[in-house]
């Protein structure tokens, strides 16, 4: 099996070229193929490539497909580590081998007059495919996410039934070059196409379409000599290939204004049609520009993943996904870490994205060997690596959306990377080069980093690094694993502040969870001996592409319009680089206690790109009601999409009214009574309020660790558990019914440790509905760990399922992820307040509630008032159960509603891969006091 160990070189393939839309005959060979999986190459079927081979007993498998997603073998997930011994170029003997066969009729046109040759193209075969047509061996594919074309002229039988046979191996020498952080999913996972090549046709074209400062297009098309170029919309026709042309005044292509022109390149034998955008990418004075203007990449890293299909993503799903990105103001995509299906880039051209197209190359597993033997510096891999770069550039060179080439990801350093860069630079001087792995930046045009903290990005912004002459981007930042990321707004502020900091790409777009009947699976769920658990669940959207709260936050942070609201006016700042706001409208509303009291619209004056205006809002006046009042301003486009939002408080809430003096507590048999409240004497906890049974507020500092607490080089969870924060005990020190209330003194401390939180609960009652609780905490002993949270928890009857509040919302919010949450009145249910993170963890906090109610269908319930604000979380399971769960299916309602009222939370940060919460979001154990009022509502007993 020499081809398997051939250092990643394909065999018998044609020179790479662009994916072109041509009028020559073509035939898509996707469909129901025959399939048989063998555990080793030796076990695979002998002679299965013969046209007459009997495959009637074989299974059917759709092509394209990742075969483990169809019941053959199993998916396996590793991040950095290779799942096979590192022994290049050798591969395991146990090498799952999938034999594929497909019989199809070829129209006679493929053999018609004027057809010189026929090609068979594979857009993606993972990892290596040996190909026969009608029993004739054609060659071998390598480079899973890159196209391979074979000349099948001699083997093809036009006008007859033909049989294609492909033997796909899960492992090949190429696997050493494809160690991306994702599931290992073998298969023919992209289209298979038969393409007729007319004699004298258009084999390839390279369109160079620039945009000049004079507003004119520059057009040069590399193509066959004698071919003629036309741009009908510009009145251009019959232009020769090879020469530079002035295309006259054109509308430029940008990601914000994705203007495309149809270009034809024709010979008498063939016409190809392209959608072309006029745009010029440059680096000018250390700034990355398009059409002469600085751009900011508000990006995400996009993998190709589908929860049911693996690496196959149907085109309608891709379109919906890209539209979803745009509705969340994502303007850039890094195709981590391989070129996507070619149609994805067509959509990026059409919808408008800045794209970094990344080569199918990663050797991260060699890092674990100190980079010894890294293919990047092994001459035996040189040819395969330059071939990969060539195949990406040639395939994608005509896409205006692609503004940079990336050599790959996490592949160390070495001569082969230098050769890839040199080849690309020579072939396409019109696009800068990117590669994060070489800090020296010897071969690239931008300084790129992953997961640099805010402070470092700020320093880079000030030019305090080793390459201050280069633009700076974060090719990965803000690890979106589980609940998070935190700190997005602060990164965005740095991109706004420093011209050289030109944005970045959140890691990553999607959770790679595989759908099973027990919820979404992650690493280890398929019995893999070596795996990286839920590290593959780190996206802004859930596996089914439902937005997570992280994406909602991202949308608010990436918003193209910033609005700074003050009484009577708003400053509108347009953060587009190319668009004005003539497509947008301004709406405002004034609320009192969360209810709208007035609203209106205001005509937006001209707001050019990168400029700001002040809009007066004379009708938005402070309402008469003596209630907390806000002015909200939204800028929306014609579809209603919010381009920016802002709000300002017009009036503070009046102080709580106290009609009477506080009543005293009385001891009544075994219980203590204070107005409508009854307490048990053992722990001093509330057990009844009005008609409501509950288990009283107990100090709670624990949260079910989020991935950012749990994962990473120095997880804070380890320190939390060592400090005993997950097992605090509560000792009653004293219970003191006073003349004007009740004081319950406790010492909250973990077993085996000396540190404690002295906690005083001071209860007061001013009427027969409400009790007011002040919690005062005094840390005792050594507290060198932050607290996960600081608040109280209560258990309420399960019937209290309807929730309403006046505070930040509507979605979940944490101290370092609350740009998207606006103050208002919201309603939801206990069930809907929870976020179904694939790996269960703390979630669902609603911030800064002025008040909240939890109500049963019969009208009974609990009302909580913050004094002035309180965060809350309500769910149907305890924090302990959430902490213990590993999949969403483990979360079983306990029968109660578990309510947390929190004074403070530790931030989310991004420490599962990157920095923890910024210093201002670390929750230190320190003396603290907070107050809430609790009332039982509805029928009293
Ligand atoms: C980066 C890598 C990504 C992904 C991420 C963590 O180092 O480039 O592929 O592994 O870390 O999720």
UniProtKB/TrEMBL annotation:
Residues 673-935 form the Beta galactosidase small chain/ domain. One of its GO terms (molecular function) is hydrolase activity. The keyword Hydrolase applies. It is an enzyme of class 3 (hydrolase). Its EC number is 3.2.1.23. It comes from the Bacteria. SMART domains: Bgal_small_N (SM01038). SUPFAM superfamilies: (Trans)glycosidases (SSF51445), beta-Galactosidase/glucuronidase domain (SSF49303), Galactose mutarotase-like (SSF74650), Galactose-binding domain-like (SSF49785). Keywords: Glycosidase, Hydrolase. Belongs to the glycosyl hydrolase 2 family. This is Beta-galactosidase. It comes from Dactylosporangium darangshiense.
């Amino acid at each position: 099996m020499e081809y398997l160990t051939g250092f990643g070189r394909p065999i018998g393939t044609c020179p790479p070229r662009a994916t072109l839309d041509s009028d020559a005959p073509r035939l898509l060979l996707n469909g129901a193929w025959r399939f048989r999986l063998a555990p080793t190459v030796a076990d695979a079927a002998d002679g299965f490539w013969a046209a007459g081979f009997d495959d009637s007993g074989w299974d059917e498998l759709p092509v394209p497909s990742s075969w483990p997603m169809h019941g053959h073998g199993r998916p396996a997930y590793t991040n950095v580590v290779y799942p096979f011994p590192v022994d290049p170029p050798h591969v395991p003997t146990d090498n799952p081998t999938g034999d594929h066969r497909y019989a199809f009729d070829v129209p006679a046109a493929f053999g018609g007059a004027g057809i010189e040759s026929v090609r068979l193209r594979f857009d993606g075969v993972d990892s290596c495919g040996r190909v026969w047509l009608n029993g004739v061996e054609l060659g071998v594919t390598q480079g899973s996410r890159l196209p391979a074309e074979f000349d099948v002229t001699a083997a093809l039988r036009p006008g007859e039934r033909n049989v294609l046979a492909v033997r796909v191996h899960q492992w090949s020498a190429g696997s050493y070059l494809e160690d991306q952080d994702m599931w290992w999913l073998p298969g023919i996972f992209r289209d298979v196409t038969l393409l007729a090549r007319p004699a004298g046709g258009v084999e390839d074209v390279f369109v160079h379409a620039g945009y000049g400062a004079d507003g004119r297009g520059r057009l040069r098309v590399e193509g066959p000599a004698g071919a003629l170029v036309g741009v009908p919309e510009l009145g251009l026709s019959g232009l020769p290939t090879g020469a530079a042309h002035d295309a006259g005044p054109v509308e430029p292509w940008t990601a914000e204004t994705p203007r495309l022109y149809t270009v034809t390149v024709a010979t008498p034998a063939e016409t190809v049609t392209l959608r072309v955008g006029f745009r010029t990418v440059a680096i000018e004075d250390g700034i990355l520009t398009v059409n002469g203007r600085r751009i900011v990449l508000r990006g995400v890293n996009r993998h190709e993943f589908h929860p049911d299909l693996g690496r196959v993503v149907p085109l309608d799903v891709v379109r919906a996904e890209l539209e979803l990105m745009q509705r969340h103001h994502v303007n850039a995509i890094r195709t981590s870490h391989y070129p996507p299906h070619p149609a994805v880039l067509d959509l990026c051209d059409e919808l408008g994205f800045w794209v970094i197209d990344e080569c199918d190359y990663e050797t991260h597993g060699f890092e674990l060997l100190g980079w010894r033997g890294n293919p990047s510096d092994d001459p035996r891999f040189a040819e395969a690596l330059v071939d990969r770069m060539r195949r990406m550039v040639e395939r994608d060179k005509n896409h205006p959306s692609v503004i940079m080439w990336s050599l790959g990801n996490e592949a160390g350093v070495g001569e082969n990377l230098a050769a890839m860069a040199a080849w690309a630079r020579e072939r396409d001087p019109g696009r800068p080069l990117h590669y994060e792995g070489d800090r020296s930046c010897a071969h690239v045009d931008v300084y790129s980093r992953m997961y640099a903290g805010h402070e470092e990005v700020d320093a880079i912004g000030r030019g305090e690094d080793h390459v201050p002459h280069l633009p700076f981007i974060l090719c990965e930042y803000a690890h979106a694993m589980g609940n998070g990321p935190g700190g997005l707004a602060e990164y965005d502020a740095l991109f706004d502040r420093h011209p050289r900091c030109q944005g970045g790409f959140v890691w990553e777009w999607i959770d790679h969870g595989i759908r099973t009947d027990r919820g979404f699976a992650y690493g280890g769920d398929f019995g893999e001996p070596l795996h990286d658990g839920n590290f593959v669940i780190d996206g802004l959207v859930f596996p089914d592409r439902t937005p997570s709260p992280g994406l909602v936050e991202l949308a608010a942070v990436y918003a193209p319009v910033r609005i700074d609201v003050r009484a009577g006016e708003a400053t509108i700042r347009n953060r587009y680089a190319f668009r004005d706001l003539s497509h947008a409208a301004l709406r405002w509303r004034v609320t009192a206690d969360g209810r709208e009291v007035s609203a209106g619209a205001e005509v937006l004056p001209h707001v050019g790109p990168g400029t700001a205006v002040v809009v007066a809002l004379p009708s938005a006046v402070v309402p008469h009601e003596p209630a907390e009042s806000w002015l909200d301003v939204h800028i929306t486009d014609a579809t209603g999409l919010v381009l920016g939002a802002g709000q300002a408080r017009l009036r503070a809430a009046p102080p709580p009214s106290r009609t009477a003096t506080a009543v005293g507590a009385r001891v009544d048999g075994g219980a203590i009574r204070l107005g409508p409240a009854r307490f048990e004497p053992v722990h001093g906890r509330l057990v009844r309020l009005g008609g409501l049974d509950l288990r009283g507020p107990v100090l709670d500092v624990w949260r079910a660790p989020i991935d950012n607490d749990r994962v990473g080089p120095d997880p804070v969870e380890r320190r939390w558990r060592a400090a005993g924060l997950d097992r605090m005990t509560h000792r009653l020190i004293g219970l003191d019914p006073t003349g004007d209330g009740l004081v319950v003194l406790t010492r909250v401390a973990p077993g085996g440790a000396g540190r404690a939180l002295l906690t005083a609960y001071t209860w007061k009652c001013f009427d027969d509905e409400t009790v007011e609780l002040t919690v005062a905490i005094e840390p005792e002993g050594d507290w060198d760990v932050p607290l996960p949270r600081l608040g109280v928890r209560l258990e309420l009857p399960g019937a209290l399922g309807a929730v309403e509040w006046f505070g930040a919302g509507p979605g979940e919010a944490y101290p370092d992820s609350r740009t998207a949450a606006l103050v208002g009145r919201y309603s939801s249910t206990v069930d809907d307040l929870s976020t179904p993170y694939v790996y269960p963890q703390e979630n669902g906090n609603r911030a800064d509630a002025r008040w909240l109610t939890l109500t049963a269908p019969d009208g009974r319930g609990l009302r909580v008032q913050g004094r002035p604000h309180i965060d809350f979380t309500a769910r149907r399971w305890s924090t302990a159960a959430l902490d213990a769960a590993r999949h969403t299916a483990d979360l079983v309602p306990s029968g109660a509603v578990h309510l947390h009222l929190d004074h403070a939370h530790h931030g989310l940060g991004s420490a599962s891969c990157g920095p923890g919460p910024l210093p201002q979001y670390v929750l230190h154990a320190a003396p603290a006091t907070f107050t809430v009022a609790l009332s039982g509502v509805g029928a009293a007993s």
